[in-house]
Design a protein that fits this description.
By secondary structure, this protein is an alpha+beta fold. The chain has helices at 17-24, 59-62, 90-94, 116-119, 126-130, 141-150, and strands spanning 3-8, 35-38, 47-50, 69-71, 77-80, 101-103, 108-110, 136-140, 159-160, 171-175. It has 6 helices and 10 strands; from the N terminus they run E-H-E-E-H-E-E-H-E-E-H-H-E-H-E-E.
Length: 186
Amino acid sequence: MKKRLYLELENCIGCRSCLAACTQCGGHEERNRNYVYDVNPLVNRQTMPLMCLHCVNPACARSCPAQAIQIHETGAVLSALVEKCIGCQNCTIACPYGIPKFDTEQNLMYKCDLCIDRTKDGSPPMCASVCPSNTLQWLTDEEIEAKQKQFNLDNGKWVTSMPYLEGETNVRVNLPGILQGVTKLF
């Protein structure tokens, strides 16, 4: 049964456990591939994780002239293949979320690959496996649908998986009202 990364942004406590776990994932060469953003650091401590959304039709892959960015059969958008990446950085410019980064020493793009070595076998990605606040969860489509029903989506305060940010994605995001310019509920 296919599982997806599901983000409940309102749960983020800014502990950055996801970042620490990301560097420990095999094949990440101790590089962090996710980010935690301080939403308004001078006003409050609200944070949110910034993860690759693994777009179904990813701009990073579309912009790559060397076809170095592959899409795994599970839907995960992988980092650039070492043998194909020419270091043009088109992918870093094309991504509307600023996720792909460029390693100048290796002349290579790197980004979240959804811990493909783990997720292809059904194990959660490292970030989701350590998140203490359930901001990052590894769920089936049925579990995500049940969560979406928990929120009254017609109240004008909550939006789930906006259709769609860049296009259809393989990551589902529950956006709290504050990010939509509506007063936060708690």
